[in-house]
Amino acid sequence: MTAAITHLIAGQWVSGNGETVVSRNPARPDIVVAEGGGALVADVDAAVTAANEAATAWAATPMHQRGAVLLAAAEIVDGHAAAWGRELAAEEGKTKAEGIGEVRRAAQILRYYSNEGDRQAGDIYASPRAGEQILVTRKPLGVVAVITPFNFPIAIPAWKIAPALVFGNTVVWKPASTVPLLALRLAEALTTAGLPAGVLNLLVGDAEVGDALVRHSGIDAITFTGSTAVGRRIAAAAAARGIPAQAEMGGKNAAVVLDDADVDLALEQVLLGAFRSTGQKCTATSRLIVTAGIADRFVDAVCERAAALRVGDPTDDATEMGPVISSTAQQNISAGIATASDQGATVLTGGAPYSDARADGYFVAPTVLELGGGDADVWTEELFGPVVAVKRAADADEAFALANDSEFGLSAAVFTQDLTRALQAVETIDVGVLHVNSESAGADPHVPFGGAKKSGLGPKEQGAAARDFFTHTTTVYLRGGRPVA
Ligand code: UN1
């Protein structure tokens, strides 16, 4: 059944008068998951106005009370994990098990931030002057524009919206227009949980709506996850207006497998990192670096397992990898593979389109490419699909140097049983998230998430780092009067 796309403005669910937005099942594009009129630029104004009107009362609501709304929403989200996880798989294309896992993860994130009232709210410093203390208090920024990508349709929105709200901000949210259904589910959960009107506004629309939102003078901060090109434009627009922006962007994440690795573990984790979510994670493993002693054995095994992955309809229980999000994505990834071949890469497995029933969906086969010494775009540019580029290294030092051979620095994985090498990786690999003996993707809500180098702009996300972005500080020089004699 096709769901109707509506928008949430000032506590009202309204239909849109913009161009029709159609969300299709990427495994079976003839199936329309959700459809409805998109938002118009005029709706952006209404939503930002509503968020501004709601801001003062929400900021004045005790943090514990704001957290209680998030906790109630977490219960609703958890209670719908099976149903919404299936919808997520049908709308986005990751497997049902991953979809259910993601919905549960969104609930976990909401629950984590629901407890923010129980955590430290600021700092206190000694004063050089008698009778004085110096406090650093935290205040909300105001209205936050939240712009989220397709690949985690409920978890990434939760990890931006939950901290924005608990720290007392109001929100205007524009999700990727390819995943409106899951956006509606999260917004419904929050309103049913008791969020006051105007505190969260949801607009489903195209890039023009996103542009109008980031340029609106009523917005006080922008948080974005998505492509590097768009992230930089958003950060530039924010800088021009003098408002803070947080942009979480691309990755070209390496898995480094050293000769002494636990091979079975490394194999399992590299496969998960590369092909879960069809490789559509900014933290996915898209480069594999293997040292000479095990390279032949390991690369063969990766290819064998990749070729054996069951690729199909993500709502089928047996499926291990679903399609990519859209026909455009499918074409870009296929073009990337073709360019790699032209530049001298050898396709070890995958690479070719499906000619069976899957030809109707946006499927890309799990693909492993081996690179020689020359330059190859597939080594440097994010393809955002199930494609891994392999390079061999003579030894661990060269392997770590290759891991750093990227403009990006989001995440990396290192597989070794040698503590000294693991510590060397911690010291030398320049990334925001490093996994030792686990896949390059994955993030817990209570610790910072974000990239080094060109992967991110602005403060990191999650955990205590989220507070740095979603609040500003007031330093209070607190002195009493003269004691009454
Ligand atoms: C994860 O690795 O589980 O867009 C989360 C992304 C990241 C989130 C990754 N911002 O893929």
Automatic annotation (TrEMBL):
**Aldehyde dehydrogenase domain spans which residues?**
13-476
Gene Ontology molecular function: any one: oxidoreductase activity, acting on the aldehyde or oxo group of donors, NAD or NADP as acceptor
Q: Which UniProt keywords apply?
A: Oxidoreductase
Q: Does the keyword Transmembrane helix apply?
A: no
* InterPro entries documented for this protein: Ald_DH/histidinol_DH (IPR016161), Ald_DH_C (IPR016163), Ald_DH_CS_CYS (IPR016160), Ald_DH_CS_GLU (IPR029510), Ald_DH_N (IPR016162), Aldehyde_DH_dom (IPR015590)
The UniProt entry, under Pfam families, shows:
Aldedh
Q: Which PROSITE patterns match?
A: ALDEHYDE_DEHYDR_CYS, ALDEHYDE_DEHYDR_GLU
Residues at the catalytic site? E248
Which positions carry the signal peptide feature in this UniProt record? Answer: none
Coiled-coil spans are none
Family statement: Belongs to the aldehyde dehydrogenase family.
Q: What is this protein called?
A: Aldehyde dehydrogenase
Species, as recorded: Mycolicibacterium obuense
Q: What is the lineage of its organism?
A: Bacteria, Bacillati, Actinomycetota, Actinomycetes, Mycobacteriales
